[in-house]
Amino acid sequence: MTRPCNDTFLRALLKEPTEYTPVWLMRQAGRYLPEYCETRRRAGSFLQLCKNPALACEVTLQPLARYDLDAAILFSDILTVPDAMGLGLYFTEGEGPRFERPLREEWAIRDLTAPDPWHHLRYVMDAVAEIRRALNNSVPLIGFSGSPYTLACYMVEGGASSDYRCIKRMLYERPDLLHHILSVTADAVSAYLNAQIESGAQAVMIFDSWGGSLSAAAYQEFSLPYLQRIVAKLIVESGGERVPSIVFTKGGGLWLESIADIGCDAIGLDWTIDIGEARRRVGHQVALQGNLDPGVLFASADRIADQARRVLDSYGPHSTGHVFNLGHGISQFTPPESVTALVEAVHSHSRLSRTGSE
User: Fold this and answer.
1) Quick check: 351 and 20 in contact, CB under 8 A?
2) pLDDT at residue 96 in the model
3) Which residues neighbour 177 within 8 Å (Cβ) at sequence distance 6 or greater?
4) pTM for this model (two decimals)
5) DSSP string, 208-263
6) Out of 7, 11, 20, 27, which one is annotated catalytic?
7) 315-334: per-residue pLDDT in tens?
8) Which of 11, 20, 32, 77 is flagged as catalytic?
9) Is 40 among the catalytic positions?
10) Looking at residue 357, what is its pLDDT?
11) Could you read off the pLDDT of 230-263 as tens digits, one per residue?
12) Catalytic position from the list 149, 154, 219, 226
């Protein structure tokens, strides 16, 4: 494996000097792009789009054709893992993802096993390989998975939840059952991410999207140890090149020091914490990714540029270890031209901060 022609993203994750701050966006291939909507229409459904390697490759590359982004991220969904466990994933218009067989009975939980990613999730590995070929070593490819706790939320609730009633009942009444789900899922995620790396992913990210819904004590017991277990099992070098890992807990600003201690290369930040404060707290132990409020992209180009500069200046000029991103996924209602304004502002201002000229 050789580094891409533009390896700025990888160097930033490894805290190496960069000429500017690299930028990519969570959910950068999505419904805000008309070309994505057209490809999804041709696919027939979101799930069919995810499971078709050629179409997954097509939508992964679409934002790179529009914008000067510094990384591509595999187009897939975090729920492919529980789907491969036999829970019966389906999507209902207006309701989001649902599972036909949520984990509510003890026998079903005890029977849960980790799927073989090369068999049950082969379509993802085929997509990773196809995207790497199509990128032709231009920018790095990011692989990803959901965290065990976030996946467990969907697996127990049966879909998205506003109050996490079912999983929190299990967490407090039958923690042994939840720990079993988390343990099996951690093994599944580790194998899944390593298979993505073996297929060509050059960095990996773990999305702990619902970890912030936990109490401080519960996070330390039901999310963090399983994140650490996964990170410890990840392939860290492929083809002579380091494969960095990013951990993102939405709402996890209270626990940055604990996250930094699990061995990941970078922490993703949501928009509720000042990135300068985050950097002071973790020092140079890890790189930081983030953390513009996605809502900024509904403002004018001048306001977008101003807010981007605020994030960059807060992190600190001449500083290594920063990957610019949103604090969560881009909204489907975002005007495509807003992303142009953001990427241009990040690149130009960070270059100016380093060199004193555009």
Assistant:
1) yes
2) 83
3) 106, 109, 170
4) 0.96
5) ETTGGGS-HHHHHHHTHHHHHHHHHHS--EETTEE--EEEEETT-GGGHHHHHTTT
6) 27
7) 997 779 999 999 999 999 99
8) 77
9) yes
10) 46
11) 999 999 999 999 999 999 999 999 999 999 999 9
12) 154
Residue 238, pLDDT score: 95
Options 7, 20, 36, 40, the catalytic residue? 40
| Residues with pLDDT less than 50, the chain | 357-358
27 is catalytic: yes
Assess whether 154 carries a catalytic annotation.
yes
Instruction: Annotate 68-131 with DSSP letters as a single string.
Output: --S-EE----TTHHHIIIII-EEEETTTEEEESS-S-SHHHHHT-----HHHHTHHHHHHHHHH
Q: What domains sit in the chain, N to C, each tagged with a CATH number?
A: 8-295+320-329 (3.20.20.210)
DSSP state of 294: G
214 Cβ contact list (under 8 Å, min separation 6): 149, 222, 223
For position 230, what pLDDT does the model report?
Answer: 98
What token pair was written down for 95? 């309701």
Query: What does the block give as tokens for 181?
Result: 């789900």
Instruction: Write out the binding residues for substrate.
Output: 27-31, 77, 154, 209, 328
**What pLDDT, on a 0 to 100 scale, did the predictor assign at position 1?**
59
Q: Is residue 31 among the annotated active site residues? A: yes
> Catalytic annotation on 281?
no
